[in-house]
């Protein structure tokens, strides 16, 4: 399918113990023979490591290296692949790549190795996307989801659903194409209903899967000196934010990612919101408002040692359009338990109230679990629950398939003409095919694979 040979550095930039230059294509072996000189002469054997030197055009050594040749189709791309492992400094790797390009390879585009694996049938589109998800996973739960998808479970589910729909579509097409012939009657509604149930089952876990894959943003908001920075440090389990008894210590937003029950949550410590004539503090307050606007969840922090006042109410009103957890902090110095009881505000989207003492860690585990439950809308990921749709693209395609399958069933119930029913069924099949790549255009492929780094 491809008549050229691509090459790229497959390891991250910077210094390291090893740097890998990868080639794929019909000339990979020939180029390797030109740029790599084994210590013991002889041809490169497939799937064997050879020790030697990368050499320049005159035969002078560039770097000591190991070379691996993987002959098609037993490679990631199903093409001839060569990997040259040299020392991991910037200069040896760049010089090796330059030598490979001079010998006839072309610099690969982002994601082009994985794209070739997809186009050559080595993996489907869900597995290609899962490859990137494995690389970018920030938690063990996110990695488990990516590995499960890389194993092919979603592709198999989608293929099974499409197979269930192909026979009804073939029957409807026969009725359209041969109206004068006696086409044997076929009961196809049960297959359509079963397929719709299968699509809805995949959709049911999509919101949870997307949160595990993409994470979420939670903004800590409140008056100055209520303990927002201390709560950030307690949730992170490290001293990341500066904490002092002086109100207004935090003058800007600070973002750090915490692993809360397997969810990568970006916690945003914001400047205390209050009226101020200090231009620097005013800027910090404005950034706090912007951080809250962009957050998925608001963590409204109140000082449990004092009754809430008008300033607290003003801040609470800023969170009224957000899912919110109210936190009564400084619980350790409270002598009247009534101060940490329910929310003092009639919040339209309040998901819970938690009492904490950030300085001692009391209540932090409860807060962590409350945040994860709020983001998931259900229980955290458990054993055997790694089979969740975790891509917004897949969710949207499944939603379109479900909508058109419902339209098919409604049309059948209303006695709509066969051609309209077949049209909706075809759209549903194509939507499912977009997930695995069986019905996909070049624009979508470009969008997906350009998110990859060069060399993958």
Automatic annotation (TrEMBL):
The enzyme's E.C. designation: 3.6.-.-
Any coiled-coil regions, as ranges: none
UniProt-annotated binding residues for Mg(2+): 229, 250
Ligand binding ((6S)-5-formyl-5,6,7,8-tetrahydrofolate): 22, 83, 122, 456
Domain TrmE-type G: residue ranges: 215-376
Family: Belongs to the TRAFAC class TrmE-Era-EngA-EngB-Septin-like GTPase superfamily. TrmE GTPase family.
Protein name: tRNA modification GTPase MnmE
Gene label: mnmE
């Amino acid at each position: 399918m491809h008549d050229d040979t691509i090459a790229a550095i497959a390891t991250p930039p910077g210094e390291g113990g090893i740097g890998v230059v990868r080639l794929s294509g019909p000339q990979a072996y020939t180029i390797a023979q030109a740029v790599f000189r084994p210590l013991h002469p002889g041809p490169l054997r497939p799937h064997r490591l050879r020790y030697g030197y990368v050499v320049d055009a005159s035969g002078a050594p560039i770097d000591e290296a190991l070379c691996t040749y993987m002959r098609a189709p037993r490679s990631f791309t199903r093409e001839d692949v060569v990997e040259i492992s040299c020392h991991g400094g910037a200069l040896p790797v760049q010089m090796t790549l330059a030598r490979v390009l001079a010998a006839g390879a072309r610099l690969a585009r982002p994601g082009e190795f994985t794209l070739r694996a997809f186009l050559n049938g080595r993996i489907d589109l869900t597995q290609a996307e899962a490859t990137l998800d494995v690389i970018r996973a920030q938690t063990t739960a996110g990695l488990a989801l990516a590995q499960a998808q890389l194993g092919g479970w979603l592709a198999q589910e989608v293929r099974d659903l499409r197979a269930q729909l192909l026979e009804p579509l073939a029957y409807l097409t026969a009725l359209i194409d041969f109206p004068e012939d006696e086409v044997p009657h076929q009961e196809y509604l049960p297959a359509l209903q079963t397929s719709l149930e299968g699509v809805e089952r995949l959709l049911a876990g999509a919101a949870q899967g997307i949160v595990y894959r993409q994470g979420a943003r939670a903004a800590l908001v409140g008056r100055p000196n209520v303990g927002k920075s201390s709560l950030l440090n307690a949730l992170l389990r490290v001293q990341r934010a500066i904490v002092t008894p002086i109100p207004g210590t935090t003058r800007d937003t600070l973002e750090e990612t915490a692993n809360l029950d397997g969810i990568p949550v970006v916690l945003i410590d914001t400047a205390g919101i209050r009226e101020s004539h200090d231009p620097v503090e005013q800027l910090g307050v404005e950034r706090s408002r912007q951080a809250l606007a962009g957050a998925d969840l608001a963590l409204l922090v109140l000082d449990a040692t004092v009754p809430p006042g008008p300033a607290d109410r003003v801040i609470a009103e800023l969170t009224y359009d957000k899912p919110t957890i109210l936190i009564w902090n400084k619980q350790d110095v409270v002598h009247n338990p009534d101060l940490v009881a329910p929310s003092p505000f009639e919040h339209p989207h309040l998901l819970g109230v938690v009492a904490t003492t950030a300085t001692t860690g009391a209540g932090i585990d409860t807060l962590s679990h409350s945040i994860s439950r709020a983001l998931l809308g259900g229980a955290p990921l458990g054993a055997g629950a790694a089979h969740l749709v975790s891509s917004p693209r897949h969710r949207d395609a499944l939603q379109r398939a479900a909508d058109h399958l419902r339209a098919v069933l409604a049309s059948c119930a209303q006695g709509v003409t066969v051609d309209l029913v077949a049209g909706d069924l075809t759209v549903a099949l194509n939507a499912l095919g977009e997930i695995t790549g069986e019905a996909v255009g070049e624009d979508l492929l470009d969008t997906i694979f350009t998110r990859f780094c060069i060399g993958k």
